[in-house]
Sequence to fold (134 residues):
Amino acid sequence: MSLLQKIAIGYFVALMGGASVNYIPGLTDENGLAFGIFALDLYDDALHVASAIWALAAGLISKNAARTFLILFGAAYLIDGIFGMFTGYGFLDLGIVTNASLGIDWSLKRWLANLPHLALGGFALFAGLFMDRR
Fold:
């Protein structure tokens, strides 16, 4: 199993963890905010599970499938995180279409809300483009 396949399977685990946040007692506050920072709804959970299944399939199929997953997933999630920083909403959940922009906000809360997509997307894109290129 290649490094990229192992990374893709790691993304399966991380994304399933993200999808389960709303269902683990104590991780959401009385307002339904995960870790007191952001809200996840059924659509977000479905997106995370679909991405996780894609990651697992890519990781099990081949190195090239894992690379393709990492590049496409990475680009989509990184751009979603960037949109979140600039508008308060991402595009993957159609938030930028259904909500008016909240404008740019460099607060810690906005960073923390978008950090999962920025970090997961950024690392996946980096891994897909530059790692295990033998």
The chain has five helices and two strands.
